[in-house]
Amino acid sequence: MAEIIRPMTETDLPQVEEIDGTAFTELLTRLRNQPINLPSHEKEYFRSWMECDPEGSLVLEGGGEILGFNFCHARGRMGWVGPIAVRLDAQGKGIGKKLMVAGLDYFDRVGTKTVGLDTFPENPVSVSLYLRTGFRVVGGLFLLTMGIPPKQDHAVRVAEIELDGVDRIAVLDEKASGFDRRRDYAMALSSGLGCACKVVGEEDNVVFGLIRRGAALIGNFHLTGDGDVEARVGALVEGTLDFFRAKGLTNVAVLCRGNDKRLLDALFGLGFRMNPTLITMHRGENAPPAPLTSPLAIEKG
Length: 301
Hints:
Blueprint (H helix, E strand, L loop, with lengths): L2 E5 L5 H20 L10 H10 L4 E6 L2 E11 L2 E9 L8 H16 L3 E6 L4 H9 L3 E12 L10 E3 L5 H12 L4 H10 L2 E6 L2 E11 L2 E8 L6 H18 L4 E7 L3 H10 L2 E12 L17
Helix pairs in contact: 2-6, 7-8
């Protein structure tokens, strides 16, 4: 059957959602050697990614059906790959490689110079594909988890950041990674899938929390100054936990770079424990000194 790669449309989304859920459930079940049921991303994410990058949201179609997809997030000179997935019965036929090459062609056309992604180091198929298409390993990303405890009081006060205050977080993100995430944060806050908190009186000490695949995720801490890091992290985490408690969630995960010792120490002190690690890979030049992070905390390539 003839295969074509084309931009995604609204009518493709149900098939994309199904592939996303089944492909990543199968992958994690195989990698973790235990049954794992991973839901698809919430519909709001797929629609937002497609609207933000209509020419970079790609599907490979064969026989009138979607066999795989690749979301490419272009942010000027910086870009991010993921999620990218292939339907279970179509895997092993080179579809992932075709989608990756098409995505890299898109980045070239729009002038993106550096592209990042996260992937599982124990998945040799993906890692080999990315190495063959010009990526290199530049760092690690730790996933820390814990059960959400009862509400706790903290001496450091935090306040929720409303939608009209998103620009400040976006500016901090862009300085750190080169990504402009204003649209991503605005979508998460306006849809009720995200929250943002700041330390009162310290406007550049902020954190963003998200609901992803029905789970609580904290990512993209920004900490400045020489104050008590553990106290500030504890208060910022508590601010996001209030949001997650209201949603009925009972467990929370945090994504943290391996070179951020202050943040890791503070999170371990709060009771977080280490879980599987991802590796970050870059392709191209002019990347910031630290590994890139994705447009919304994490999108696995």
